[in-house]
Design goal:
Elements: E1 8-11, E2 16-20, H1 31-37, E3 42-46, H2 62-75, E4 81-86, H3 88-99, E5 104-110, H4 123-135, H5 140-148, H6 154-161, E6 164-167, E7 170-173, H7 177-182, H8 184-188, E8 200-205, H9 216-222, E9 226-231, H10 238-241, H11 243-255
Parallel strand pairs: 2-3, 2-4, 4-5, 5-8, 8-9
Antiparallel strand pairs: 1-3, 6-7
Helix pairs in contact: 2-3, 4-5, 5-6
Length: about 260
């Protein structure tokens, strides 16, 4: 395998769906969706660069992430796929549509807009990640203790801890913390792309502020053949909080 190829899993049979996780995630993050979709699709789940078991790089922007995804599709001889991305993975999916239009059957973006975000939402997470690095905890419980000094929500701590592994006698992060922090401005940012004319669905968590009415003009400018659907009583992690509702929306969109 090409060492620069994204780590991935392939499950199921049928039309291809590519699942792309968000920041600090890994290929298992959309597992609730994958477990349903493999019944009648070939589902490819990926680790983006600097995440999971994929390669580390000092460069992490959306053109690079899109190029990685396009190369994987090429390596796997996939000429048509439905692309589903959450959060940062949604932006990577949208960037992919700019360079691999002919390979994308339909595009589904989970709670993300094609815009630059100004608010720094993850500084407490970065502090927690670095606290684990500095203190070299020997157990997952110890690592969670150091995360708790910076990150209030237990759900966020548990999510991050999925990317811990015991190596050389202490817990270490699978993702490239320095690479992510150094490229955080790229992760927040966005450069408008040429209009993608394929069918596109934006799914919004009703309680999330990542995808808002004021983003509609930017969406329609870049994705003129798009529509939006709101998942009630859920936030940014809509696929984890309301998987049945999200799957219902996805299946309705990909089968029509």
């Amino acid at each position: 395998m090409n060492p620069q190829q994204l780590n991935h899993t392939i499950q199921g049979q049928g039309p291809v769906i590519l699942l792309i996780h968000g920041l600090f995630g890994s290929l298992g993050n959309l597992g609730l969706l994958a477990r349903d979709l493999i019944a009648d699709h070939t589902v490819i789940s990926v680790d983006l660069r600097n995440h999971g078991q994929s390669f580390h790089s000092d460069i992490m922007d959306y053109p690079s992430m899109a190029a990685d995804l396009n190369q994987l599709l090429t390596d796997l001889n996939i000429t048509s796929a439905t692309i589903i991305g959450h959060s940062m993975g949604g932006k990577a999916a949208m960037a992919l549509s700019n360079i691999a239009t002919d390979k994308i059957n339909k595009l589904i973006v989970l709670d993300m807009a094609p815009i630059s975000y100004q608010e720094r939402r993850h500084d407490n997470v970065f502090a927690g990640l670095n606290a684990v690095i500095e203190n070299k905890p020997k157990t997952r419980k110890e690592a969670l203790h150091f995360l708790a000094q910076h990150i209030e929500l237990d759900g966020v701590r548990q999510f991050l801890a999925k990317s811990l592994q015991l190596q050389d006698g202490y817990m270490q992060w699978l993702f490239n913390v320095d690479g992510i922090i150094g490229n955080y401005h790229h992760i927040q940012s966005w450069t408008n792309i040429s209009p993608f004319l394929g069918e596109t669905l934006f799914l919004k968590g009703a309680n999330s502020d990542y995808l808002m009415p004021e983003h509609q003009s930017a969406i329609l400018e870049q994705f003129p053949n798009s529509k939006a659907h709101i998942i009630a009583n859920t936030g940014h992690w809509l696929h984890a909080e309301k998987p049945a509702e999200v799957l219902r929306s996805i299946r309705r969109f990909i089968t029509k």
